[in-house]
Amino acid sequence: MKSLVVLLPTLNEADGLRWVHERLPLQELRHMGFETTCIVADGHSDDGSSELAEVLSFDVFEQVGKGKGLAIRQGFEKAMTYNPDIIVMLDADGTYDPKEMVEFVPHLSRHDVIIGNRLCGRLSPRAMTKLNLLGNHILTWFASILFNRRCEDLCSGYWMFSSKALEKMKLNSIEFELEAEMFATCVHLGLDVEYVPIQYLPRIGEAKLGSTSDGWHILKKLIIRRIFPLPYRSEEHTSELQ
Q1: Nearest 5°: phi and psi at 38?
Q2: Model confidence at 60: pLDDT above 90
Q3: Per-residue confidence (pLDDT) for residue 209, from 0 to 100
Q4: How large is the average pLDDT for residues 19-33?
Q5: 201 in the Ramachandran plot: left (φ > 0), alpha (ψ -120 to 50) or beta?
Q6: CA–CA distance from 162 to each of 3, 56, 95, 241 (Å)?
Q7: Mean pLDDT, residues 134-150 taken together
Q8: Core vs surface per residue 39-68: b (16+ CB within 10 A) or e
Q9: What would the mean pLDDT of 236-242 be, rounded to a whole number?
Q10: Helical H runs in the chain?
């Protein structure tokens, strides 16, 4: 059996974790030849998320430091210790349907990275405010122009990587700019990226992404990575896993 690792960054997402757990396509992936492991990178939740994740038989670790980007980077390091063939990243807030990762797998035989495309997919009512939708389109357009590479959904949180592709990526994002940095890194590394339309659902629980401030940080990261393709250094604690 090949190995597939699912990475779920969490910060007070107990209800979302239950939803994700119920919809993980474990049997379908097994029929495709994959043994699946789920890792929860917990950002110091106080709603019982980490305890619930352990009950659900997820592999849980508490991130060192704060920030979604930092949690995911540490989660990538943790995921690679399983010697996976495929790594999947998605949010644990119910916005992304875990079942759709089954549709990603066949594409990975021809591409290095698969990204779930919300903007050309099935955007559910109330899943995204009009302001956030406009901001997503603007940032996606800006990324396409800045890097001269087709970008269909810059801020999607649903990614699938081959292990070889993920090993090459050097990242230092701390917060919500991580996806933008991953796109820029894919371009600089010459990785073959494919977009697959997905459904995007209303989140379960309170939103954590800000409209204006986080959008500016994403834009800033794009500009920095256009000028400096690789980070000068990683931030502290990137390799300290508990």
Answers
A1: -110, 125
A2: yes
A3: 65
A4: 98
A5: beta
A6: 11, 26, 23, 22
A7: 97
A8: bbbbbebeeebbebbeebebbbbebbbebb
A9: 39
A10: 14-23, 26-31, 49-55, 68-80, 101-104, 130-147, 163-168, 178-189, 212-227
In the predicted model, is pLDDT for residue 63 greater than 50? Answer: yes
Answer whether 154's CB lies under 8 Å from 101's CB. Answer: no
pLDDT on residue 240? 37
- What does the block give as tokens for 71? 């949690």
Q: What CA–CA distance (Å, rounded) separates 77 from 176? A: 18
DSSP 8-state code for residue 231: -
How far CA 170 is from CA of 47, 97, 231, 235, in Å, comes to: 32, 28, 7, 12
Surface-to-core class of residue 6, CB atoms within 10 Å of its CB (0-12 exposed, 13-18 middle, 19+ buried) = buried
For tokens 């920030």, the residue is 67
DSSP string, 127-182: SS-HHHHHHHHHHHHHHHHHHTS--S-TT---EEEEHHHHHH------STTHHHHH
Instruction: Summarize pLDDT for 207-233 with one digit per residue, the tens.
Output: 766 667 889 999 999 999 999 998 976
**Distance separating alpha carbons of residues 15 and 8, to the nearest angstrom:** 13
211, two tokens: 């409209």
